[in-house]
């Protein structure tokens, strides 16, 4: 098959790395891709939201399968667009419809979906700017800490956990009245705070059938010990020790089954990946959020553990034949450490030359915010720059492999967390 993959981050490099291993892949194009995907596929200078350009490329290169990596084109309706065009309507696309993508595009929509389908989640209320007084009064009835979520897409940064009522009220006003997160915070969801350990569960579904992929735990904050600002993700570990067979059975029965059944019952077309952010609260799974694509950097820890043909999985999703796919998962551990530009997630400098040694056995280096400059050197181009995944028979070995490679990668002002996986390591001892 000729395959087109949309996106340019670490997730997409991991997808590309896995796709080109398949004998089912004839040629892989990545739009727009990064310096890492350029090494293994053909990068195409095409915006992920240029729907007409994407359609024309599909036709000119006889593309047989389209895979959408990030959420933005999904929320903007790329799947509907391609399926509505007579020339591309028969080409399988991996990604949900625009309505399905609203599960991530609107926190309020997803919370109401959970309520209708009896999916366990935290109590909440949603407010707009003209309900500011009612919202402030509601905050006074909440236990601390209080969670505030921008309703729309905010690049993983639209969630605030407020420790005091004063902080919650000030942030609530900033979000609604001063557009702290732009249009994303035109509505704000006020949510009950759940204590526990977070878990990322990934489901592939063709709208009827589903396969549960390896679970992962990610590390969102910039600082060690989970301190500082929220980021798109600083690292990930898979598998997760507390997500044993009994717990994952609860996740499947209480969360996955009612979610997939709810999509079908409500006629929400969904052929793609569903990322379920869970809180393990006293041994019970509660959904914090849905994302309508694979997570990043979790993908970089999850995909290396899938040993069955990945293109077969993608084709099963896109063609509605997922039931026939035999998912095989390695018992090995995978740990991912993200290296970022100094200053991220706030302002940072670009264009520093990266010294990147050859990969050592047991590790894979995935590119995220990288580019090749005019002098043909690899440079940092984004906030999250590289994701280094270590593999091993146990967590300790996987972490050792990841960090030994990280220590040999250098560029000016780079930063990474050194405590990725340490909490899981303590639990396992």
UniProtKB/TrEMBL annotation:
Matches recorded under InterPro entries: ATP-grasp, ATP_grasp_subdomain_1, PreATP-grasp_dom_sf, PRibGlycinamid_synth_ATP-grasp, PRibGlycinamide_synth, PRibGlycinamide_synth_C-dom, PRibGlycinamide_synth_C_sf, PRibGlycinamide_synth_N
Phylogenetic classification of the source organism: Bacteria, Pseudomonadati, Bacteroidota, Cytophagia, Cytophagales
Statement: the UniProt record of this protein carries the keyword Transmembrane helix: no
Ranges of residues in domain ATP-grasp: 111-319
The name this protein goes by in its record: Phosphoribosylamine--glycine ligase
This protein's pathway: Purine metabolism; IMP biosynthesis via de novo pathway; N(1)-(5-phospho-D-ribosyl)glycinamide from 5-phospho-alpha-D-ribose 1-diphosphate: step 2/2
Catalytically driven reaction(s): 5-phospho-beta-D-ribosylamine + glycine + ATP = N(1)-(5-phospho-beta-D-ribosyl)glycinamide + ADP + phosphate + H(+)
Species assigned in the record: Algoriphagus pacificus
Domain of life: Bacteria
Assigned protein family: Belongs to the GARS family.
EC number(s) reported in the record: 6.3.4.13
HAMAP family with a match to the protein in the record: GARS
Keyword annotations: ATP-binding, Ligase, Nucleotide-binding, Purine biosynthesis
Gene from which the chain derives: purD
MF-aspect GO terms: phosphoribosylamine-glycine ligase activity
